[in-house]
Inverse folding.
């Protein structure tokens, strides 16, 4: 049950990340004693745009999008537990699908967030879309990017299985190097940017959350989260509120096929928009372009 907190000096002079820190204690929300501090970015004013990151990133991934979105709305970008400036638990068993889901809901409750526009990618979708299916009244719009909401019934591709095996067996996940191989735009692979993705992790002890995430994806029907996702899909399949689907054309983990699946399962969501020359971390490859698309979407779908 030990908790580690990354020293603040690790985050000094991050490129393109001038945002002031904000923290909320979510220990009660996730059923822990003591303190469990979640960090988040809070920029702009107005209706809420909630940006949820995935594996193994943090709110730094949204840095190119936040200033553009903040001209139109209040942008909140939390770091999930085990990532970024949020607290890190040292025991593998401290990380579960339920814990992460409860943490996001606890964050929404603590900040009293309603009529939320969800922007989600990777695990941000596994968490945010489950909540949207369970609590649709809390969400006004969905922006779904390079993610899925698995129920344990889908065919699992070899790309994900290889990543799952690697992340759970490699002794020390090389986070910065992973981004160096994943970012499509060569101009975004600078040493400073890659170091920023490594910044939350002074050593291996801080990486338990990153190592655990792939194994938590419910690829079998009886895995934790699978039943909840099947229930969430009952709501999402009839979703009639505004929805924007943005998937990169060069994502080796999910691919455009994952976007097509969501498009079919959410027939009222609108057509899939393919973002060209964007990989799994499309916020890094095409951040400004995506942010402008979202602003246009917000303007076209007044609450």
């Amino acid at each position: 049950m030990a908790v580690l907190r990354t020293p603040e000096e690790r985050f000094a002079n991050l490129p393109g990340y001038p945002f002031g820190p904000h923290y909320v204690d979510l220990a009660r929300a996730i059923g822990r004693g003591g303190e469990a501090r979640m960090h988040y970015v809070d920029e702009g004013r107005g209706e809420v745009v909630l940006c949820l990151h995935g594996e193994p990133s943090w709110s730094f991934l949204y840095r190119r999008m936040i200033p553009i979105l903040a001209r139109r709305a209040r942008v909140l970008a939390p770091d999930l537990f085990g990532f970024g400036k949020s607290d890190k638990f040292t025991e593998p068993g401290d990380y579960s699908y339920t814990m992460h889901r409860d943490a996001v809901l606890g964050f929404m409750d603590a900040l009293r967030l309603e009529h939320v526009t969800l922007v989600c990618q990777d695990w941000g979708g596994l968490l945010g879309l489950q909540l949207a299916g369970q609590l649709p009244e809390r969400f006004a719009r969905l922006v779904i990017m390079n993610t899925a909401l698995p129920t344990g019934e889908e065919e699992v591709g070899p790309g994900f299985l290889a990543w799952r095996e690697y992340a759970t067996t490699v002794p020390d996940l090389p986070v910065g190097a992973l981004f160096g191989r994943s970012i499509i735009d060569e101009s975004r692979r600078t040493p400073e940017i890659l170091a920023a993705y490594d910044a939350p992790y002074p050593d291996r002890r801080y990486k338990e959350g990153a190592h655990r995430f792939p194994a938590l994806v419910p690829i079998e029907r009886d895995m934790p989260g699978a039943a909840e996702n099947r229930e969430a899909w009952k709501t999402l399949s009839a979703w009639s509120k505004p929805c924007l689907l943005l998937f990169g054309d060069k994502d080796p983990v999910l691919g455009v096929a994952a976007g097509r699946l969501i498009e079919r399962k959410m027939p009222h969501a609108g057509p899939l928009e393919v973002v060209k020359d964007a990989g799994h971390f499309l916020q890094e490859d095409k951040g400004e372009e995506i942010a402008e698309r979202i602003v246009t979407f917000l303007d076209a779908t007044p609450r």
